[in-house]
Write a structure and sequence with these properties.
- Belongs to the nucleobase:cation symporter-2 (NCS2) (TC 2.A.40) family. Azg-like subfamily.
- It holds the Pfam family Xan_ur_permease.
- This is Xanthine/uracil/vitamin C permease, AzgA family.
- Strands 1-2 form a two-stranded antiparallel ribbon.
- By secondary structure, it is mostly helical.
- The chain is 66% helix and 1% strand.
- Helix 2 packs across helix 3, helix 3 runs antiparallel to helix 14 and helix 8 packs across helix 16.
- It has 19 helices and 2 strands.
- It has one domain.
Amino acid sequence: MKFISEKPMWAGFALFFSMYYVLGANPDILREIGVPVSAALLGTFLAIIVGNFSGAFFTKTGLMIAPAIGISIFVKNFVLNSDHVIDWRHAMVACVIAGLAVAVTSFFTDWRDQIVKDLPESVKKGAKAGIGALLVKEGFDIFKKAEESFHLEPRGAGMAVAIGVVFLVLFFLIRRSIENNSRSALSALQFIMHLEFVFVVVLMSSYLWLFQPDYISALPETSQVSILWLEPIVRTSWHINFNVCMLILLFAATVWFIVISDIPGTPSEVLPEKLEDVATDGTETAPKGYQSARDKAVKLGYRNDGVFASLAPLFGTTPTIYYAENQILKSFGQTGEYSSAVGYWAASLFALVFIVLVIGQFSGHQIPIDRYLSPVAVTPILIFIGLYIISVSFFDIPSAAAAPSTRNPEYYFPTAVSVILTSRIGLEYTLPLSILSFWLVRSAGEKYGPSFIWISIGSGVSLIIFGALFVFGS
């Protein structure tokens, strides 16, 4: 059976462990603006589990969606910088509006697919690299916050994080070497190498549990789950006036734009174009008509994401996007592994963790799973994934049509802008600035599609609006 064949299982495990950090990091980010951690965790679980079972069923691929860490950081920064004009509940309303707009866009237009096709290669690289830089910064921010809040011993804990990142790099390089040079390597060894992320999480969590007990005992109750709208804090008074409405609409429009222009892990970017690249039935040669199957997967994938982008904020988390970790699927053999079995495996593993949490919560015998959701324990994964995405952005070979322009240093200018600025000033500024930098240094060989003109105009308007907010405040 395809579901229990080795390659989909390895790919599913790799996606699960590479995305495991979202369970600890996403609620922790939203907690800073007042979102109940238990509700954010439940929303994160539901979006990942239900969204990816649904996605695997309809698209027949294993590409994963989840609440967007980048948007969660944007939500946090927007609320904190609004001078108390809006709070997290206003932000969730904006995310619901944005999610509905994403759903409408996904069902009734082909904009999301067309945007990926029309963006210049250098701007695509910038979009990927910016997300990578954001993950790296968030990893360091989580660690710094833990040091300050829970009195971690900087030298010992910092060394543990550093060792965790080094182990991940070594695991990854060894696995790549095995895959590229030793087709006859033992299956058990290959499987172990694909568990690189869980080894680091277990080691980091065990270290903190044994040597930093004060930190572990001070963790928020991340192992509790609750429904957002049953939380008493939601029913306390919160005000709506003209300024708040305008900020909510601006907020929603920005989140919508960020989601539909997201590049790294989307079906349009990750799924292969050529018939011979991959087979849908697990065989070596792709069946006739695969191209139409790919187009169908892209369309249904965006629609599935649109549905859960609108539902996720109702449960206390941010809209879903296709995660950049989907790029990891390209590393599974020369052709990659994109089957629905991958999605079923990954979603099942997230469901298993959720079941363990719920059993522990309602049985009265709390299972210490929160040790393994520790934000610091997943910090090495955040940093490693961020570095991996940045490296892919700079060193992946672009399409043949764009290859000549890569000899020019200015080709990488939008990528450099994204890496340097995303972690400093946020997504709302960086994407427009990356697009502006493209027009300033565009190489003669750079290609772009017609919708990129409208994206550029929209980015310019967005830059002016957010620049005014930056100067004059909310």
